[in-house]
Structure formats: C-alpha cells, structure tokens
Amino acid sequence: xxxxxxxxIYTIASFFNKGLMAILAFxxxxxxxxxxxxxLSLYSLFVALIxxxxxxxxPSSIMLEHNKLDEKEFKLYFNSSLALSGISxxxxxxxxxxxxxxxxxxxxxxxxxxxxxxxxxxxxLFQENITAYIRTIDKPMQFLWLxxxxxxxxxxLVVLLVIYQGKGATGRVLSGLITAGIVFIYALYYFIxxxxxHTKISKKYLKEELKFGFSQIFFQFNVFVLMGADKFMxxxxxxxxxxxxxxxxxASQFAFIINVLVNAFYSAYxxxxxxxxxxxxxxxKFKMLRVKYLFAFFLLVSTLxxxxxxxxxxxxxxxxxxxxxxxxxxxxxxxxxxxxxxxxLLGILYYxxxxxxxxxxxxxxxxxxxxxxYFLVRQYGVIGACYxxxxxxxxxxxxxxxxxxxxxxxxxxxxxxxxKGS
Length: 422
Known about the structure:
This protein is mainly α. It has helices at 3-27, 34-55, 58-66, 71-107, 111-136, 140-164, 168-193, 203-237, 242-278, 282-317, 326-351, 355-380, 382-407, 415-420. The protein has one domain (3-420).
C-alpha cells in the first residue's frame, strides 16, 4: 500500500485512538471538573513515568528487526524481548511495593489509582506491541479496525462509569484499564497464534534488546519529562490549585491533536523510511526528503488551522471554566509542530543504531526542559510552562537536525530535485 493511502488510514486510526478520546475529554469537561482533571493529569504522569521501564523500546525494536531477520529468528527475537519486558515489570512492581507510601504522598494520587496505573502499564505493553507489529507487516486496515473497536469499548465504558454512574476521575481511569485489559487478551491470543510467544529465549537477543532498551529508556523518559514537567511544575508552584492544572491539562489535550497527526504519519512512514535507508540510492534520498518536506508543510497548515478554529470550538463546546486556557493551546500546538519535525528525523538514528547519540540528545532535552519549566513557571506562572515547551521543542529539533546531518548527510537544499522526488 502506498504511503499516502497508509497515512490516510493511520490518520483515521489515530483519530479514533487519540483524537476521539481527546474530544471525549472535552465533552467530559461538564462531568469532570478542573480539580478532578488535575488529578487525572497527575495519574497520567505516573503512568508515563513507569511505561519506559516496562516497554523498553520493544515496539521500535520490532520494526527494526523485522526487516533484518528471517521469520524463525524474528519469532525468537520477539519472545526474548517480551521476556525481558516481563522481568523489568516485575522489578518495577517490587520497587513500587517498597516505595508506595512515598510515591503516593509525593504526587498526591490515591494508592488505588496508582495500582490501576501499574496494571495499565503491563496491558499497554501488549497494546503497543500489536499495533507496532501490524504496522510492520503493512496492515493499516487491521490497525484501523483494532483502533475503532478499542475506542468504541472505551467510550461506552466512559459513558457508563463517568456520565451515568458519576464516578468522575476514578471512572475515567477504570474505563481505560478495562479497555486495555481487553486488548491485552486479544494481543496475547494473536501473538500465540502467530507463533511469536513460545518457550524459547535467546541470550543473544536478550542482550541486544537490553542494549537497545537502555537507550529507549532515556528516550521515553525524555518524552515523559517533555509531556509532564510543565504539569509537575505548575502543580509544584501552585500547591492546592488543582483547578489551574486542570485548565492547563485541557488545553494540552487540544494542542495534542497536532501530535496525533505526528503519530499517524510516523506509523505510516517508519517502515517506508527503513526501506529507503536499506537501499539508499540517490533517487531514494530525494524521495525520502520529499516526503519529509511535504509532511512538514502539512503539519504547519494543520497547526495554523487548529489555532484559527480554536476560539469557536471553546465558545460552543467547552465549559466556560476552561476558557482561560485558550492561549495555552496556541503555544503548545506550535511546540508539537517542532516535535513533529524532530520525530521524522529520529528514525534515521534508530536505523543506524546510534544509541549513544539518542541518549545524549535525550539527556540534553531532559535537563533543558526541567530547567526552563522550573524558572519560567516560577516567574510567569502557567503561561511560563508554554514558553518553556516551545523553547525546548525548537532547541531539540535543531540539535536533532545537526546530529542526523552528521550521521547521514542529505541534500536538504536541492529543492527542485526534492520536489520531483528523483
């Protein structure tokens, strides 16, 4: 299936997967008030913190190794990687059991929700793996149907638990957990039927996955910091103001629509990128750049349209208690635009296994994000988090561009040949 058609399908799937849930969150603004939304934000931070240590980059390694290994070896690699994630999850559980009271008091989230978050992280490993595998074998329609069915189930549960039973933030978390559990059961059956889960484990592949997973922990922790430092600092400098955090969290979900488009494109483009890099002729270099430029233009237009239509959507669909967050959307939408430019370059470092560069950029990003959020939120309040986000995303895109240009010099300035794709 060609890239444009795959991107269209993945965009629809991503809309159901993330965009539709974001829109649902806007509708729930009348049922989950800002203070409870602030609690959901902190719960999301906890889940985002532990996910890298459970997933260990397995979805990305699936896509990389599928193109390099034969069927028998890939099945062995898959099962070995899954075993490593299982061991890592057990370690996370033990550490949580030893520090549960400290974590609960630090992030001010009830223990019950944190336990749900741990279980969700394990289920999410299988969810991420099955979607990565389906993308790898180029089955976008299967990806689409899985996304649609999953979100129909979750929306139904949200309506039941949040709207009708009035369970608030707990109902919202429980809806996601039950849905992830259903996907986990299906993924387990799917992988067993495909012969990807079995009894054999390779020490060689355990070591390879651990090495790749180590760099992915840094990268995913970097993503956690990028997505969570702003909310953490807002909560830290505005102690007890869960409403203010909830307003910012709602605005962030609106801006996240841009990231939905980024994820959709990355889902469609990543397998194609590896094919270009495996056969890196001059023609494929220009085709690769043409796709990157076209997507950057599409993403810029989408960001501008989102900002133009935002006041209308807030006025007609969003609880007035959240309207103070409109300016936050503008800043964060453009921050996600630069994240998109960063993301379309990252796959090149993965392909050439430049793990040290990925770690170095991740460490730089983490430090920059934390420092900027600390000082700017303290100085300017909530809007300071927006300033910090935009500066951080622009900076890491520029660093990524320089790093990729050194690993793989490309003719970025030959626009006529890029447009022609040959």
